[in-house]
Write a structure and sequence with these properties.
heterodimer; A: 260 residues; mainly alpha; MetI-like fold; 11 helices; B: 283 residues; alpha/beta; Rossmann fold; 6-stranded mixed β-sheet; 4-stranded antiparallel β-sheet
Chain lengths: 260, 283
């Protein structure tokens, strides 16, 4: 703990140095030929823009629509991903019927779904939720399958010897055994679903953080671009931390093993 | 324990063979075994590694299906795993996400007993194996010997006809193993269930059993049926008595073809993990 405390001054200094470089480079409109700071706003301008957004009423509308889209898409992906993952991991038949089409769809980036999603869904709102869903589904699904297949077969055999039926083995052995891996999938999926949502919002949104960022670019409100970027970062980080925290609460035995 | 209902536990094997593996690699692990075990008997199956003694235990538990012959427990053919035939593995199979108490109560939960009643019985059982103070721990917070005691309690709570043990103390250090052997005999003195105990350790078999079935290397066949009449309760002093040494010499002669047991290689950093090579090297 004391060693960590001693390291904080260096970490803070590093952050401050980055900010200072940004301030200087933006002030003198540094031009490195390949890369130019001519249009980059200063940290001060960003701070002012952030304050303006925080005190205006539009922030809530943007935040609200982004959060509700992420929640809808991510929650659906979590349910479908875990259910399909358990099925595929436990049944050879389900693996043979479900996994091949999913393996074909998996390498397609969620962003590439955007045009088709707009054509397939009645509203752009639904198509954005679908993109978020697609982004989160595969990490959750694959981590669940992997977690289920890694469950110690001796635990299953032993539970059967103690009188557990098919359903009890799933509930008492397979699901908790796969849970640490599922939590990892959920945390990764949270990151990718934010990534996909922001991209989708930039293309087809009205309201939302991604839309706000892109709109600022088209309206040439350059400081607002960075405010949008920082907001995306903070929201993504916060929701991933929330998933990890909830995951740790759901797997208390896992923590004691790592601690001991 | 007064509440313990003693179930019979007679085993009959007739011409029992078990095949393992697939296609051209299949082989007979045990071949045409004929044997009977009386209810309440403590039988050790002694044999070299890989002779098929654990395979026979797997068939008794219902995890393996015989390829020919009959295997009956109390007149009923063995068909699949059952709480009446409890199994203790070499390494514990306690559920890491359940407390020690809930692990021991697991069988009762499967029977549909209420929480209060199953916890009451589980506490009683933990008392019997000397783990009363560890009910609230996670399994990975216990030592190896304690984990095996919890495992035994978890199996016994189902009042099994058979207690099947597959080298249950094989992974423990010598002192812990000796204490666990005495504890097992104490438990068995109060719960007279039939015990089938697989081991490759001659001392262990002689110390524990009423009767030792000695198995030959693959394909496994019984080459000796040895009855022991050492007085019970047995204590460590038995190990140095002349009769014990005499019988040990006899068993050593029966197993003299046994090659050195292959143990996992150790490095100063622990067990080498061949399945997951360290990423650092690849990067």
């Amino acid at each position: 703990m004391t060693r960590n405390l001693k390291r904080w001054p260096v970490r803070l200094t590093s952050l401050l140095a980055c900010l200072l470089f940004w301030q200087l480079a933006a002030n003198v409109k540094l031009d490195l030929g390949l890369l130019t700071f001519t249009y980059v706003p200063t940290p001060k301008a960003v701070l002012d823009a952030a304050w303006q957004l925080l005190t205006s009423s539009t922030l809530l509308a943007h935040l609200g629509s982004s959060l509700s889209r992420v929640f809808a898409g991510y929650a659906t992906a979590a349910l479908v991903g875990v259910a399909l993952g358990l099925l595929i991991g436990r049944s050879k038949w389900a693996e043979d019927t479900l996994l091949p089409p999913l393996e074909v769809l998996r390498p397609i980036p969620a962003v590439a779904w955007i045009p088709l999603a707009i054509l397939m869904f009645p509203s752009s709102e639904l198509s954005m939720v679908f993109i978020t869903f697609t982004g989160a589904l595969f990490p959750i699904l694959l981590n669940t399958v992997h977690g289920v297949e890694a469950v110690d077969p001796r635990l299953v055999a032993s539970a059967r010897s103690l009188g557990a039926g098919r359903w009890a083995i799933l509930r008492e052995v397979v699901l908790p055994g796969a849970l640490p891996s599922i939590v990892t999938g959920l945390a990764i999926g949270m990151g990718t679903s934010w990534f996909c949502l922001v991209t989708a919002e930039m293309i087809s949104g009205q309201f939302g953080i991604g839309y706000y960022t892109w709109e600022s670019y088209t309206l040439q409100n350059y400081p607002d671009i960075i405010v949008g970027m920082l907001l995306i970062g903070v929201l993504g980080m916060g929701s991933s931390a929330l998933v990890k925290r909830l995951g740790a609460l759901a797997t208390p035995w896992y923590r004691t093993r790592r601690a001991s | 324990m007064n509440s313990y209902q003693q179930a019979p536990g007679r085993i009959d094997g007739r011409g029992l063979s078990i095949r393992l593996g697939h296609g051209s690699e299949a082989f007979e692990a045990v071949q045409r075994l004929d044997f009977a075990v009386e209810p309440g008997e403590f039988v050790c199956i002694l044999g070299p590694s890989g002779c098929g003694k654990s395979t026979l235990l797997g068939a008794l538990a219902g995890h393996l299906v015989p390829s020919s012959g009959q295997l009956n427990v109390d007149g009923q053919p063995v068909a699949g795993p059952s709480p009446e035939r409890g199994m203790v593995f070499q390494h514990h199979t306690l559920l890491p996400w359940r407390s020690v108490l809930d692990n021991v109560a697991f069988g009762l939960k499967m029977q549909g007993l209420g929480r209060a009643e199953r916890h009451r019985q589980a506490r009683e059982m933990l008392q019997l194996v000397g783990l009363a103070d560890f009910a609230g721990r996670w399994p990975n917070q216990l030592s190896g010997g304690m984990q095996q005691r919890a495992e035994i309690a978890r199996v016994l709570i189902n009042r099994p006809r058979l207690l099947l043990m597959d080298e249950p103390f094989g992974a423990l250090d010598a002192q812990t193993r000796a204490r666990m052997q005495e504890l097992l005999l104490d438990i068995w003195a109060s719960i007279r269930t039939t015990v089938v105990f697989v081991t490759h350790d001659i001392d262990e078999a002689l110390f524990l059993a009423d009767r030792i079935l000695v198995m030959s290397p693959r394909p496994g066949r019984f080459i000796e049926d040895l009855r022991l009449d050492f007085a019970r309760p047995r204590r460590a002093s038995l190990l140095t008595s002349p009769e014990f040494t005499h019988l040990k010499r006899h068993c050593l002669a029966l197993l003299r073809h046994e090659e050195g047991r292959e143990l996992p290689r150790l490095t100063p950093l622990g067990l080498p993990d061949t399945d997951h090579p360290p990423l650092r090297i690849a990067l």
